[in-house]
Each structure stands twice: as C-alpha cells, then as structure tokens.
Amino acid sequence: MADKATILFFDSGVGGFSVYREVLDLLPQHHYLYAFDNEMFPFSEKTEDLIIQRTVAVCKKINETYPLDLIVIACNTASTVVLPALRETFDIPIVGTVPAIKPAAQISETKHIGLLATKGTVKRPYVDKLIEQYASGCQVEKLGSTKLVEIAQDKIQGDSVDLIALRDELAVWKNIEDLDTVILGCTHFPLIKDEIRICLPQVQHFIDPGLAIAKRVAFLLENVKLRSKNEVENLIFCTKQFEIQNKFMQALKHRWGFERLIVLNLDE
Ligand code: DGL
Hints:
- 44% of the residues lie in helices and 17% in strands.
- The chain has helices at residues 17-26, 48-65, 76-89, 101-107, 119-123, 125-134, 147-156, 163-174, 193-199, 210-221, 245-256; strands at residues 6-11, 31-36, 70-73, 94-96, 112-117, 139-144, 181-184, 205-207, 235-238, 260-263.
C-alpha cells in the first residue's frame, strides 16, 4: 500500500492556495495536485450548471492519470453547488469549502457580522440555510464581489494590490461601526486579508476555514484505503495556456513546491 495520499485541490484560480497552504502545513508528507480552471475564471457570476460541469470534468480528467484519494474543492462558489455531483461521480472523500458562518456567529460580540464572498456565493440558497441554522441571532451583511477576486488573483501573479479599488469595493461596510466579524467566504480573500483589514479597521475577526479544512482532511485520511501510485512530483493543472506561465510556475515552485504545470485538454 502506498503511504502517500494523492490529494487534489480545485479552484477557478489561485484562491485554493489559501486552503492548500494550511493542509500542507499540517500534512507535509502527501502528494499534492492543484487544478485551476483559468479558462472559466472568475466563477463568481457563472451559472451553477457551468460550474458543476467544469468542476466534475477537470477532476475526472486528472483522476484518469493520477488516481485520487481525496479532493478538496477549495472554492466556495463551486462548493455551494457541486458537492452532490462530485460525490455521485467519485467514491472518495470530497471536502468542500463553505463560508464559515457558524464560527463567525460564535466569536462575534456585537452579533453583527459580514459575509464577504463572490456574487454567486452570496445568492446561494445553501448559504441562506447556513445563516438560518447558525446565525439566526446575528444581523448578517452580505457583500458579493468579483473585483476582489481579480485583485487577489493579480497579487499572486505578481501585480501590486490596487488599494483604491479595494477600498471602493468595501466602502459600503466602512461606516458600519459595530461590524466586528467578517467571514472570508471566498478562498481568494485570505490572500489579501492584510489589505482588507486596512480598509475595515473596525473588524476584530476575519474568519477563514483553512485550518478547519486541514484538520478535516487529516481526519478523513485516517480511514482512506489509498489508491495513489505513491507519486512524488507535485503538479499544477490549468485549462488554458496563459502569458506569464513560466514566471507563475517559478514563484509556485519556490513558495509551495510544485514542479510542473500541465495544460489540460478537456475535449480529448
Ligand atoms: N476562489 C473562489 C471562491 O472561493 C472563486 C473565485 C471566483 O472565481 O469567482 O469562491
């Protein structure tokens, strides 16, 4: 039996690295694959059907060559719609990333909290149910933004953060003085947490689910019969060529130990 699990992370872009880095910290021994659907980026305002179809197609394609032991959908926009379809397709644990509403409601002292997510996520009935279930005693503000996703994506690809655009995007919350807790309900946002904090100085707690997901992965792996081939090379997959591919890979190799980038052809 192989002793390294092959774990795939999936997102539309670089947001999933905010989850991956927590899992890697806790479980450095495994074989990691990271896939991002840059052909469809950003997912924020895409239809639910398209997101389901793309996520399942990418995961299936990779599983053909690299038998997967566990998949982390490191994207809230996708997780809020795709988990049932993935669980029907794969017989392995599927871990989703959904807005951390329960811990936010618990930690807030003012009981006035904000959900910062994509435009798609803030509209999902799944999220309304979480709020109903875990935050009925709180006033919950929702802010859906595609711009913030793009700002975070640019930052990881080497651009400086446009603080003015960021401030404008968050301006509607600036004067809500008792907003003490904000849920980072898109995996891109922990990557610009320091910059978001500058724009919302009244917020005491920014909640992201990275560490909780890492613990969940560790727990689930205890009972998984590994199918992987004990591969060692950590790989990145995307769905279309892009201009700064080489620069991007160099940064990721040093930062998070990925060796190569493979462009998937989903039509093959
Ligand atoms: N990082 C993703 C999320 O957690 C999606 C961002 C996007 O492509 O809109 O929602």
